[in-house]
Amino acid sequence: MNKFIAICCLLVCSAFIVNAQPPKGNAKAGSTYGAGAKADNAIAIAELPSKLPNDEAEVNVKVKAKVLDVCPKKGCWMKLAINDSTTAFVKMKDYSFFVPLAIKGKTIVLDGLAYTEVTSVEELRHYAEDAKKPQSEIDAITQPKRQIRITADGILVVE
After folding, report:
1. Which domain range does residue 74 map to?
2. Separation of CA 100 from chain center
3. pLDDT, tens digit, for every residue of 66-88?
4. Which of 28, 106, 119, 151 is the least buried, fewest Cβ under 10 Å from its Cβ?
5. How many domains would you assign to the chain?
6. By C-alpha distance, which of 93, 96, 95 is closest to 60?
7. Is 150 within 8 Å of 90 (Cβ atoms)?
8. Cα separation of 85 and 130, whole Å?
């Protein structure tokens, strides 16, 4: 009986280790993730801030953007460039899909729900740890940050 329990525990732990990896792949043009997306009618992400007139607004969007960063642990979040000084933080809807690390630097079209939110110091530090930032940079995070966030339904790699 003890061997059976030990084997079950080993299998469960193995499943968590395997699932805690970003998907493999080169994120080539035409690759889709989640529900996918189509490139037609996508707006440049630089237009997004004007589509969010107040803090309560949630807007369905289709944006074209460059991926600046991706979670190296699972591919469960991304940062997109809005302009030279502003980024948008993206999480996948219901944690139901992830993106490969190779998507970093690519241009994508993303369908999702955009909104602004104040992100806590604890959460900002968590994402910095995920991104393997140096401890000094993590410790320097001392204030919450208002940021544009997007919950992605689907993603299409365009370039």
Report:
1. 2-157
2. 11
3. 999 999 989 999 999 999 889 99
4. 28
5. 1
6. 93
7. yes
8. 21
